[in-house]
Write a structure and sequence with these properties.
Radius of gyration: 21 Å
Distance between the termini: 24 Å
Largest sheet: 2 strands, antiparallel
Number of helices: 4
Strand content: 15-25%
Number of strands: 4
Shape: elongated
Order of helices and strands: EEHEEHHH
Length: 139
């Protein structure tokens, strides 16, 4: 690892193996570009849907407590990013397993697949390590 990165800020966690040991960095710079062989897929789960939708119900704007399939699975809807939104308990109970057009609800924003900036936005909206702050503000 020492040949690949420069540690700007070390943590107090030490990595030990049979042949080497080093402090795990909190902030590091790659010495050279490392090409990722594939685009990483963002897992479709409740927490990531909440992050994408800013923890807001996509029907009324209240704090989200669950996720909803816009076209219910019972009506042939799929489990994919474009068919799932964060929603509050009230809207989820109101919609039940009905199609959106059969309810008084409407979407605030059309759901989409998160883009490449998804993780940066997720970190900035969370509570990142204070030592990251000056680097994240320029991202």
């Amino acid at each position: 690892m020492r040949k690949k990165v420069i540690s700007l800020v070390d943590s107090n966690i030490e990595f030990n193996s049979e042949k080497t040991s080093f402090m795990i960095p909190k902030v590091a710079i790659l010495k050279y570009y490392v090409n990722a062989p594939y685009a990483r897929r963002i897992a479709l789960n409740k927490e990531n849907v909440f992050i994408r939708d800013n923890y807001k119900c996509q029907y009324c704007g209240s704090p989200a407590e669950s996720v909803d399939h816009i076209i219910p699975k019972s009506k042939g809807g799929s489990h994919e990013w474009s068919n799932i939104v964060a929603c509050c308990r009230g809207c989820n109970l109101n919609k039940a397993d009905n199609l959106l057009r059969d309810t008084p609800l409407s979407l605030k924003v059309k759901p989409n697949l998160p883009n490449d900036n998804f993780w940066i936005k997720a970190i900035l909206n969370s509570s990142p390590d204070p030592s990251w702050e000056k680097y994240l503000l320029t991202a």
